[in-house]
Design goal:
This protein is of the alpha+beta class. Helix content is 21%, strand content 19%. It is built from 6 helices and 13 strands. The strands form 5 sheets. It has a 4-stranded antiparallel beta sheet, with helices on one face. A hairpin with a 3-residue loop joins strand 11 and strand 12. The N and C termini lie far apart (121 Å).
Length: 330
């Protein structure tokens, strides 16, 4: 159909000839492509400055919800309830942790008895020694007299007739049979020095290689290789003039986990030395149980405290003892 035919039939036709001009209300301005390209480049590199925007709206007042005054009673009650709940939770959680980490301890019978102490003086222990730091070994000779509290220690005789004669003595029980000889002078019966009088290489008065005013290689005013007086070597023994130590503080021994699971029980025998201050020393197991119970017994005995053994009721002395630790499930 030709434009003339359209006009004849009454179809709309604008001066520009665009079909949508009447529909959009204005005619399209057709531009060449070069014009569009130039405008795009100009907008990128040389943009057109637009006038500032003018605010034409008015703000609407809104009420401030946070400006409302808080109620102190509500805050106090809420805080108290929250703190109480937190404390209750912490209490039960902490109690559960303590119960899990620390198992319940079982009470044990610890029998310290009388340490198998002798009831008479048939057992002895201790020793003594002395000397004057001489270069020569103590001379060979007989033993001095035996006395409870000797005043004069054994020593070579330097004066024939002293003005205040006092016989030398050592602190040994009189009913103990000691080795002796028929030498006229006081000295060490096993010494090889039979020509020169000498107190020996020890110190602290007395004769021998030890110290303390006794006779021998030990320490003390007794005789022999031990210390603390008397005779027998090593420590003095309980009985006679030596009283037993008294337990004043003890600690219950715990079961080991292995023994508790196996329901294993028994008696562990432990030997130790109670020193002159009442502390346990040289702790060792004499009759073992195993399953970790021996170590638990030693751990508990290390914390014991004793009133030390007393010699003649006034002098604290170290003594050996044995303790039975009874591990028993109830």
């Amino acid at each position: 159909m030709t434009p003339e035919e359209q006009n004849e039939q009454g179809a709309p036709n604008s001066e520009t000839g665009h079909e949508l001009d009447a529909f959009l209300g204005k005619a399209f301005e057709e531009k060449p492509i070069w014009t569009d390209l130039w405008e795009s480049i100009r907008d990128v590199f040389f943009p057109v400055k637009l006038p500032p925007l003018e605010l034409t709206s008015k703000p609407i007042p809104v009420p401030d919800r946070m400006a409302v005054k808080a109620n102190p009673w509500a805050i106090g009650i809420s805080s108290s309830v929250n703190i109480a709940i937190l404390l209750i939770v912490l209490f039960f959680v902490g109690k559960k942790i303590v119960d899990t980490v620390k198992p319940n301890l079982m009470a044990l019978n610890i029998d310290v008895g009388d340490y198998n102490a002798p009831k008479a003086q048939q057992k002895a222990g201790g020793g003594g020694g002395g000397g004057d730091r001489s270069m020569i070994e103590a001379n060979k000779g007989k033993l001095p007299k035996l006395e409870k509290d000797p005043i004069t220690p054994p020593q070579p005789q330097t004066l024939d007739k002293p003005k205040l004669p006092e016989m030398a003595a050592i602190n040994v029980q009189k009913d103990i049979q000691l080795p002796d000889n028929n030498m006229p002078l006081i000295g060490m019966h096993e010494s090889s020095n039979i020509k020169m009088e000498s107190a020996g290489t020890g110190s602290g008065a007395g004769m021998g290689t030890g110290s303390g005013g006794g006779l021998g290689s030990g320490q003390g005013n007794g005789y022999g290789p031990g210390y603390g007086g008397n005779f027998g070597g090593g420590l003095e023994q309980i009985g006679g003039r030596v009283s037993a130590p008294v337990l004043i503080h003890s600690v219950e021994a715990e079961f080991s986990d292995e023994a508790r699971r196996a329901k294993y029980q028994g008696v562990c025998l432990v030997s130790l030395i109670v020193d002159a201050q009442g502390n346990p020393q040289n702790i060792r197991v004499v009759r073992a149980l195993g399953m970790g119970l021996d170590e638990k017994a030693i751990e508990a005995i290390r914390q014991y405290k004793f009133k030390p053994a007393m010699k003649d009721g006034r002098n604290p002395v170290p003594v050996p003892i044995t303790i039975e630790v009874d591990f028993r499930l109830y």
